[in-house]
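Kindly inspect this chain:
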Amino acid sequence: MIQMARRFLIVTACLVATVAFLIGLIVAGSLTPAPAQSATGPSVVGLRPAKMATSGPAVASFADVAEQLNPAVVNIDATSRAGAAKPRARTGMLLPDSPDLFGKSPERERQGPRRGAGTGFIIDPDGYILTNHHVIEGADRIAVRLADGRSLRADRVGSDPDTDIALIKVSSPRPLPHAVLGDSDTLRVGEWVLAIGNPLAYEHTVTVGVVSFIGRKLFDSSLDRYIQTDAAINFGNSGGPLINARGEVIGINAAISSRASNIGFAVPINQASLILPQLREMGRVSRGYIGVALRDVDPDLQRSLGLSSSSGALVQDVTVGSPGARAGLRPYDLIVAVDGKQVVRNDELIQLVAARQPGTSAMLQVVRDGRALNIPVKLAERPVRDPEPDEVNEGSRPATRTGSLLGMLVREIDVEMAARFNLPKDIQGVIVSRVDPMGPAYDADIERGNILLEINRQPVHSIDDFRRLTANARSGEVLALYLYKPEGTRRELRTVKID
C-alpha cells in the first residue's frame, strides 16, 4: 500500500513538471499557437500577399494607358447641307438583339442641316485619322476637335462601306500625337480592353471591360469579324479606339446592341490596316469577286448529298456573266481550296477572294460529283454593296434597284437570315434592305427589316418577282404592299403612291 502511494506521487510529480515545462516554453515564445480567425472576416488560405505582389507579370495601369492615348483621340462633327438626306449606313435592323450604330438618329429629320457626332483617332503625325464610314457618310463638312481644344477642318481621304472604315485628314503646323496600332489577331477572349470616345457628347470618356467574343457576324457574314466587348460604349463612341492593356489600338468601335447597354462591337484594327494603302491611294477599296452564292456543309447536307467531307464552300448559285460562270462553276460544286490553301467554311473562301485584286487569277480546287477538279478563274471587282446591312454571302445578287420609284431596295431571304430573325416557316417574301427618306415608301411608314409578302395581292417570293411587279409602275399609280413586321410579328397592308 505504501509502495503504491509512492509510485502515485512520483507519477504526479512528473506530470506536474512536464506541464510546467510546456508552459514555460509557451511563455518564452518557443511555441506560437495559431492565431484566431474572425468568424465574420474573410478566410485566406495559402496566400502570401507580399510574394503575390512581386511574382508574375506586372499589370498595366489603365490610367497610364488613358493618359497616353487620350491626346490622339478626336471628336468628329459631320454636317450635311440643308435638306440633304444622309444615308443611314449599316444601322442595324430594329429587331430583337440586333446591332445598332452609334451615330443613328432616332428621329426622321427632313428639313435643315443634318449633323452627326462621332469619334476618331490620329494614326500618324501628319494628321491621318481613322473613324467609321457611317460617321462621315453624306457629310459636306467634317470638323475635328483635338484634345488640346483646337478645331480643324478635315478632308475625306477614303472610306469603305463594306467594313465601315473611313480615313480623313487634318493639317497642322506641328506633328500631332498619334496612337500605336496593335495586332488584333493576337487578341483573346477575356482580355482587358479600354474604350475612349465621346458618348452622348461627353468628350474623352474612358471605360474599361473585357473582350467577350471575337469574330462576331453582324451585317455582312462574308467580311464581318467584329470584336465584342462589354466595355461601356454609347452613341458618340462610333469611330473611337478600342485599346489593349499595352496601349495599342486593336479595334474601331462601331456598333452596339439595340437591347443591351453593355454589348458593343468593334472592327478589328487588322482589317483597317489591310485596306489603309488603298484608302490613301484610291479613296476606296477594290476587292476580288467570283459571283457565286455559297453555304457551309452541315452533317445533314453532307449525308444527303453523299459528300466525303464537311469542309469547303458549297456553290448554291452562279451569277450569270460572272467570273464563276465563265470559269464553268456549277451548283453543288464543293470548293475546298484556293491556290492550294484549304477552305473550311464559305466565309474563308470569300475572304481569300476579296483579299485579291480584280483582274488576277486564282486556281480553285473543286470536288464535283466525287471527282477532284482544278478550275482557274479570273477575278472581277466585287460590286459596291448597298450601304445598308448586308446579310448575304459574297456571290449573292446585289440589292435590286428597280424599286427606285418606290424609294426602297429589297434583298432575298436566305436560311441564315430567316433563322437569325426567327421568321415563321410560312413567311415567304423579300426583305426591305433600304428605304429612301425622301421616297414614297418612307411616307407609307415602310421600314428596313420589313418583309414584303405581296404587291397588289401578287406574291413576292424573289427579287425577280419584285422586279416584275414594279417594272411597269408609273407616276401617280398606287401599289398595295402586304408586309410582315418581325419586331411585332404582325402583317400589315400599306399603300405606296408613286411620285
About this structure: The first strand starts at residue 73 and ends at 80. Residues 25-59, 82-112, 386-403 have pLDDT under 50 and may be disordered. The radius of gyration is 32 Å.
